[in-house]
């Protein structure tokens, strides 16, 4: 199919995709593979897979400041740096310069960005989970936010489709709360972790499984065809993987889209606004500002997919004003920018484990254990909060770093530090955040960035439900470690965490059944501008407690399939 | 809650035993301090730092701190990753040892001096950590004043010596079995005297 035979190839495409990250990559892949000529607009620099992973193979001594953050990086990456590790030398090159890309915090918001090819898919945590059927029904049952216009069954084939494409390592468990994916072989647990799993099964009847992670443990033919290979257990994923072993837009979707010869990617190009045509009631294209030259160019297409990351996608809608949409494209409901959700983290517990002295794991596992949600599930009913949380964590042996806080120095101390220390174990919760229209972002009426685009203002905070849940996240983790017989249990519940730090920010252009209360329909189309699709985290009507990327990608593939179907039927 | 508190909790509660220069870096914004780079040591002070580092990680059948380049690493790290409070507390600690005639002491006396310093530092660290775990906007201003006191000298020396040594090429290769590409993840039973792995 070629829908665009006669147009100027430099500025006209069948489809424009804004953003090259987790969902932009999938949109580009699906649309090109279905025959469309696609332009991806990426605001950041070009990163070439493997070739540009400058630090990937560096030895510890080749990283100048090791795991410390130089003062200069801490300033340039002032927001990224709120998430430990993001501003370290080995990955700082893949983070966004926050000084040059400022935002406004009416209330604190931890906004971690990655403006380059592949976006945050380059250094995501890779944890990959399906939602369960109840996740899609909870809003309606509890009268929270708006009901989802889709159900679990609508996404099942798309979950399968994405899981096979990206490759997910995990253990099938047949749990209603955490539906199984199509799995590559699971990564092993260490002996103390297996001990913990058995203890939880016997004492608390709570399942513990190995994390489900988008790292290839047994590459399939379609993975190797893209140049992807097995995980080497280096656990240096966030530097970029020279083996393509973990899924990213760079290692998977973009090469697949490129193979069609129907993909163009524009780098260093900021999508500033959508161009709307009153006569047709459609968006005709995207106005783009070159990062370096400030040159403005319009690109046009029949359909436009917004995958800029939830906050930037909403900002792009808000900045696209016309006589039809004076408050931003698709914003008749006034819901664009509202209902910011995330997963709240930073509450849990850790402990030391006695024994297992002869056990040591060879290799570094880029994965951990997962304890599925058990609160407000089955017969469990909490009185202080709705929904629930899952835990991620695991056991490891302490190394020489323990020496920093220990007494001693000299020859015997030096020798001692070369030997492994005690096993320790820890878990932290990932809690569901409820949608709240007062948790919002909007465009600053005055302040603009150096490209003349209004700054985003964040005005959002956790509510009572999240605060109550966090106490239980800490206490339940401590109880579980205690039930397993572990020692020196320490609970934690960080009070300084803000929305955003989970790097699962979502909800700012939610799907819904009613255009009066939602922005997108059940196929992620803007209600009143049907050729604009939003398929990143902005589309989410609730947040579940599991990591969201799989669901975003499944929604994207489903919407792309629908979009091409509608184009074919000349409905778009 | 301000940025500095936020960072202090990140560092404490993600379980890192290392201190957080990032935290201090962020403080600088709050306190309008000058950019780093002014940190220097005299040649006497350099000798003293090298001597202390070598006492923490001495040469045995494997290289010591000096052979592994730790003294220069410490100075570079203080310049690049730390701010005025640490610059001051570090130099104060060095000067204290200079005044005690540390470099002319016997090795036994030097060791004894450092033992005492380690014991004193424990109390200083307790106070330092209390500063960092307090929360709340009301306490903020007072806290920021207190935090003008940097990490104690001994803590900085020990942390940077261990970090510099065990991640240096000489120190890491001598202490551990360096495996840049493990290729698998599996259980091994440690035999006595066996080197463990570093990656």
UniProtKB/TrEMBL annotation, chain A:
<comment type="similarity">
    <text>Belongs to the GMC oxidoreductase family.</text>
</comment>
<dbReference type="InterPro" id="IPR000172">
    <property type="entry name" value="GMC_OxRdtase_N"/>
</dbReference>
<dbReference type="InterPro" id="IPR051473">
    <property type="entry name" value="P2Ox-like"/>
</dbReference>
<keyword id="KW-0285">Flavoprotein</keyword>
<dbReference type="Pfam" id="PF05199">
    <property type="entry name" value="GMC_oxred_C"/>
</dbReference>
<keyword id="KW-0274">FAD</keyword>
<dbReference type="Pfam" id="PF13450">
    <property type="entry name" value="NAD_binding_8"/>
</dbReference>
<dbReference type="InterPro" id="IPR036188">
    <property type="entry name" value="FAD/NAD-bd_sf"/>
</dbReference>
<dbReference type="InterPro" id="IPR007867">
    <property type="entry name" value="GMC_OxRtase_C"/>
</dbReference>
<feature type="domain" description="Glucose-methanol-choline oxidoreductase C-terminal">
    <location>
        <begin position="435"/>
        <end position="555"/>
    </location>
</feature>
<feature type="domain" description="Glucose-methanol-choline oxidoreductase N-terminal">
    <location>
        <begin position="231"/>
        <end position="343"/>
    </location>
</feature>
<dbReference type="GO" id="GO:0050660">
    <property type="term" value="F:flavin adenine dinucleotide binding"/>
</dbReference>
<dbReference type="Pfam" id="PF00732">
    <property type="entry name" value="GMC_oxred_N"/>
</dbReference>
<keyword id="KW-0560">Oxidoreductase</keyword>
<protein>
    <submittedName>
        <fullName>GMC family oxidoreductase</fullName>
    </submittedName>
</protein>
<dbReference type="GO" id="GO:0016614">
    <property type="term" value="F:oxidoreductase activity, acting on CH-OH group of donors"/>
</dbReference>
UniProtKB/TrEMBL annotation, chain B:
<protein>
    <submittedName>
        <fullName>Gluconate 2-dehydrogenase subunit 3 family protein</fullName>
    </submittedName>
</protein>
<dbReference type="InterPro" id="IPR027056">
    <property type="entry name" value="Gluconate_2DH_su3"/>
</dbReference>
<dbReference type="Pfam" id="PF13618">
    <property type="entry name" value="Gluconate_2-dh3"/>
</dbReference>
